[in-house]
Design a protein that fits this description.
Layout: H1 10-21, H2 37-45, E1 53-61, E2 69-78, E3 84-90, E4 94-105, E5 108-114, E6 117-119, E7 125-127, E8 132-139, E9 148-155, E10 160-168
Length: 193
Amino acid sequence: MNVSVVKSCLSCLIGAAALTAAGSQSALACEAHAANGQSLQTAQAQGHAMSSVMAMDAWVPVAPPGVKAHAAYMVLMNHGKETRTITAVQSPQYGSATMHASITKDGVTHMQHLAAVDLPPGPPVGFVPGGMHIMLMKPKAAYKEGDTIDLSLTLDDGTTVAVKATVRARNDAPGMNHDHMNHGAMGHDHKGS
């Protein structure tokens, strides 16, 4: 079992401020970026792998009933000394989860599948509307505002980062509504259950 321990830190606050200043979705500092030294020691003593990657401000926009493709957004920080790479995403509440980037060419936006996303040490990496995002396909239930979506990010070093995303209304920030985009050209089945 892989464990991710998080605590508040100045780097998270700086990273969140940088993303907000850049016009990205608002970001919050790490919620709990290491409960305390004792928790860290206990996890290490039990032989659990620790991830240096932390997720902040994870959310999934409320989607109309019947929509089979949702998006998830968040800000990630790597507090380690080496670049980590996200190699897979999962959610027990969806049939599948994949990473995509929105690419606009000649005024037309397309979704590009991302097999991996690098997280260099230091600067925040944003999964934001109109940019990189996680596509959540075939929801297993109808999710309403305030619900929690569980996500698991698998990293190249074998650790996983558990992320809890809150379902919330989309605000007026610029970006595309991925919940209504046609991903059919990518082979996604929006009509399956």
